[in-house]
Q: What sequence folds into this?
């Protein structure tokens, strides 16, 4: 215990300060300013203590500071539990621990707190840069821990030793990561304090709400198709369905969990795919139309939108199947159809008049009215733009007949309004359209700027039919992507621009790396683990055989490392091997060779114990002495030596 | 390989100093390894006689310096005296300018005088009055010291003790040898009747062949293992220095040569180990007067052959 009480040297103090800095600096964006300033003051104080070799602050002062820090954290967050308060508290303790470095024990404790803080970073973000930063911090912390026991080597040597130790730990880390039985749930699945606003679709749609999204190149989800990628114009990712209209906004009114199973029959060539959904804070799971199978823990709403049982607050992955030609809602409930006809009492007289005309002409023939509406949209020569002019109270009339410029929500809303006015049940469907295949890893990447809105009309006998009014006026929006559809000169999100080829290439690669990280590191869940183990021949792994494989592989790594360390010592002299065999044989007859005994001395002693064999033993020992300790041995010596040992029968 | 004269030399010495084969062999090994010898023992056990007989048998010039507390460096190194006839200073070499020096009771002199001798031992040259003069070749110092607890001694510091390759003790003779000594002829007369067995040149050749004795890498591993043990085991105040390891290897080589081998065996290292560590390793528990042989034996048994 004398080691634990050794005072902390100046060099160790500098190491600890550097580690504390490295461990707490990445956390500053998540912590309140007063805490950052307090921590910086404590660090500066520590530096001054070390530099000037002042006395440590008295214990009562530290007690007061600890209490002040704890109260501060409590006042800030109204709790000391949870992610951010917990990390904040840890930072307070670390900063103050630096001020009471009395003995080596304190140094070790400080280094361990730093390890915890590295873990704390992952509670906030889990990106590749975070992981790389954590690796560097762990290297510094480990070097500090080494310095705590021996501070003589210079920093480069310490870091080198720490690096070597971590490199040796790496195979174990990989094995444990791959093979250790997984629990369901994300790697860093702790409840988050509050869900920060992320861009994405909302459950209401008013003019401009989707156009806003078109400025974001954040990733909504990634898709990997099991077979061929369907054509771009088929990639409608169904999101919230909005049947309710108040004259300006469209709203979701749906019955959650209406269908635990898909209520319609399969039709068309099924498309199988796997979605990796970025967290968006809502319950929606995006599915290619029409959803054929449902991911676990999910159900369909009354308007056929897959909904997860819990809000998507972590990146999740699910497999799904789409039935492109399924007839959904073939016999839809009357109240659903009634809802899909509701319109405000007044407003938009021009389109109402045209719709009434259609109604008079075609009666109940919804399909004919649909064609009439499409023709109207075509005739109006509407322009697809990111910057539509502001609209007054009659948004449909103004868009269709006056400004004629709009984004997808204008098209969809107006189309649905026109159909409803003509007595055809219709509703707005929001979601994403298209996506971009990353040629590096083959994933289809759907970004926020792929957000889209289209219309769905109910035709007797055909159920709900998808019509995309945007495609009528701007077909390139659907066939390629929205940048092609937007008039030249409009501001586009940086990553959506197609003119910088190298940037595009770089983006593809970066995205593939990030996706690989998400898929294989953060998203390495029990399912993926099972798939992976099956692919390397370990079928149906349960915890028993996984533990067995894990211990065997860890043992092998351990052996490998040991062999690597001992590689110099393992070059055994053949003479020594034969000598050991010889002495072992003698020791079975009561003449034990001591490990420290020279060969000639042993021969003399053994000769006295067994005078019969004295000569043979002396000859063997003399040969051994010459072989092991003599200058360049004669070529025949070793074989002669071995032959003599073989011939020796005690 | 083995110089044939060695047998005769050892026989001559053993005829005069009775029952002390091992110390005598060690002394000779020390000489062959070009090192200096420190003998610590009580007065009257034959230290001076050993030095005498070695000088005689090996055909070396011999001088004896009796160290006293009022001795000055000039008494050892020599002094320049004004010569009236030539009108200049003339250097009169001190007793150190000889092939074999017996520094008797070295720890009776003051540190100033001790260091004059010890520096000459290390450098194998003397610098006096601005002029450097080489000492003869071969040059060999046998120093004797009384046990440190005796009155009126200035103990040698560790750094100076390290300049002696070996430290041996003679000890009382066993009863049979002592009886023979008492009954036999006068040692001084016997000494006078001895004839040199070799020339100093031959001694230098033998020193060269001792240096050429092969030490295999397995043996060097062993020396390192011994040193490493003394450095890590909590038994000693400080471990063996690299210089001590060199000394150990050099004496072991000479020891192997005395045995007529062209390579060093672990037995050689073990044989000379007590003499090498006697004045170099100080146990932490200094009060326990354990003899050096048992300390060396414990060290040997703690370190397996690599």
A:
């Amino acid at each position: 215990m004398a080691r634990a009480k050794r005072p902390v040297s100046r060099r160790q103090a500098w190491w600890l300060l550097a580690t504390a800095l490295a461990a707490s600096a990445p956390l500053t964006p998540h912590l309140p300013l007063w805490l950052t300033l307090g921590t910086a003051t404590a660090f500066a104080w520590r530096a001054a203590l070390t530099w000037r070799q002042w006395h440590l602050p008295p214990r009562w002062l530290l007690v007061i500071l600890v209490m002040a820090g704890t109260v501060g954290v409590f006042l800030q967050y109204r709790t000391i539990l949870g992610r951010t308060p917990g990390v904040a508290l840890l930072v307070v303790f670390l900063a103050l621990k630096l001020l009471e470095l009395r003995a080596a024990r304190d140094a070790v404790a400080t280094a361990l707190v730093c390890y915890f803080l590295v873990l704390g970073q992952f509670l906030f973000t889990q990106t590749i840069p975070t992981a790389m930063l954590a690796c560097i911090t762990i290297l510094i912390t480990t070097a500090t821990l080494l310095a705590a026991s021996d501070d003589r080597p210079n920093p480069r040597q310490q870091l080198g030793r720490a690096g070597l130790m971590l490199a040796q730990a790496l195979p174990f880390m990989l094995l444990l990561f791959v093979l250790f039985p997984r629990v369901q749930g994300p790697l860093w699945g702790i409840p988050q304090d509050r869900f920060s606003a992320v861009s994405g679709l909302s459950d209401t749609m008013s003019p401009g709400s989707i156009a806003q999204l078109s400025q974001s190149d954040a990733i909504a989800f990634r898709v990997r198709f099991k077979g061929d990628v369907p054509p771009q114009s088929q990639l409608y990712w169904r999101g919230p369905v909005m049947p309710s209209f108040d004259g300006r906004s469209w709203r979701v009114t749906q019955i959650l969990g209406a269908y635990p199973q898909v209520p319609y029959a399969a039709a068309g060539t099924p498309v199988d795919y796997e979605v990796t959904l970025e967290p968006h804070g809502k319950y929606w799971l995006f599915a290619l139309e029409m959803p054929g199978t449902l991911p676990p823990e999910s159900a369909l709403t009354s308007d056929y939108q897959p909904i997860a049982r819990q809000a998507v607050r972590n990146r999740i992955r699910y497999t799904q199947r789409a039935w492109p030609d399924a007839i959904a809602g073939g016999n839809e409930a009357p109240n659903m159809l009634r809802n899909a006809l509701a319109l405000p009492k007044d407003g938009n007289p021009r389109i109402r008049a045209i719709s009434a005309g259609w109604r008079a002409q075609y009666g109940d023939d919804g399909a004919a009215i649909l064609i009439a509406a499409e023709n109207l949209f075509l005739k109006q020569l509407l322009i697809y733009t990111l910057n539509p002019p502001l609209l007054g109270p009659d948004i449909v009339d103004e868009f269709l007949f006056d400004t004629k410029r709009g984004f997808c929500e204008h098209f969809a809303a107006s189309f649905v309004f026109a159909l409803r006015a003509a007595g055809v049940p219709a509703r707005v469907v929001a979601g994403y359209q298209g996506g971009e295949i990353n040629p590096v890893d083959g994933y289809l990447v759907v970004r926020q700027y792929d957000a889209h809105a289209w219309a769905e009309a109910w035709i007797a006998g055909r159920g709900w039919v998808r019509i995309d009014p945007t495609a009528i006026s701007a077909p390139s929006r659907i066939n390629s992507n929205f940048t092609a559809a937007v008039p030249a000169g409009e501001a586009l999100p940086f990553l959506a621009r197609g003119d910088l080829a190298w940037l595009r290439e770089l983006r593809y690669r970066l995205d593939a790396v990030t996706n690989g990280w998400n898929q294989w590191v953060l998203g390495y869940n029990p399912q993926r683990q099972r798939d992976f183990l099956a692919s390397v021949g370990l079928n149906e792994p349960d915890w028993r055989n996984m533990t067995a494989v894990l211990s065997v592989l860890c043992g092998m790594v351990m052996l490998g490392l040991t062999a690597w360390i001992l590689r110099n010592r393992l070059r055994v002299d053949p003479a020594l091997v034969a000598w050991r065999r010889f002495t072992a044989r003698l020791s079975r007859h009561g003449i034990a060779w001591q490990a420290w005994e020279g060969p000639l001395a042993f021969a003399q002693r053994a000769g006295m114990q067994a005078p019969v064999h004295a000569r043979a033993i002396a000859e063997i020992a003399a040969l051994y002495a010459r072989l092991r300790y003599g200058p360049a041995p004669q070529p025949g010596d070793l074989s002669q030596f071995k032959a003599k040992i073989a011939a020796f029968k005690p | 390989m083995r110089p044939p004269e060695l047998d005769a030399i050892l026989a001559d010495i053993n005829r005069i100093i009775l029952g002390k084969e091992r110390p005598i062999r060690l002394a000779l090994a020390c000489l062959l390894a070009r090192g200096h010898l420190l003998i610590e023992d009580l007065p009257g056990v034959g230290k001076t006689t050993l030095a005498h007989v070695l000088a005689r048998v090996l055909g070396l010039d011999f001088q004896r310096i009796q160290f006293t507390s009022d001795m000055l460096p000039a008494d050892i190194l020599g002094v320049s005296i004004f010569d009236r006839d030539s009108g200049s200073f003339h250097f009169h070499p001190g007793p150190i300018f000889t092939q074999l020096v017996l520094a008797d009771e070295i720890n009776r002199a003051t540190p100033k005088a001790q260091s004059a001798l010890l520096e000459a031992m290390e450098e194998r040259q003397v610098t006096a009055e601005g002029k450097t003069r080489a000492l003869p070749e071969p040059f060999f110092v046998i120093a004797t010291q009384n046990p440190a607890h005796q009155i009126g001694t200035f103990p040698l510091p560790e750094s100076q003790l390290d300049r002696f390759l070996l430290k041996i003790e003679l000890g009382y003779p066993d009863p049979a040898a002592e009886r023979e000594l008492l009954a036999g002829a006068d040692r001084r007369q016997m000494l006078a009747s001895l004839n040199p067995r070799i020339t100093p040149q031959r001694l230098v050749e033998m020193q060269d062949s001792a240096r050429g004795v092969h030490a295999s890498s397995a043996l060097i591993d062993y020396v390192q293992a011994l040193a490493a043990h003394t450095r890590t085991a909590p038994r000693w105040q400080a471990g063996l220095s690299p210089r001590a390891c060199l000394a150990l290897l050099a004496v072991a080589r000479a020891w192997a040569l005395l045995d007529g081998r062209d390579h060093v065996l672990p037995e050689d290292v073990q044989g000379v180990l007590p003499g090498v560590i006697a004045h170099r390793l100080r146990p932490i528990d200094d009060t326990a007067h354990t003899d050096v042989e048992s300390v060396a034996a414990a060290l040997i048994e703690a370190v397996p052959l690599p």
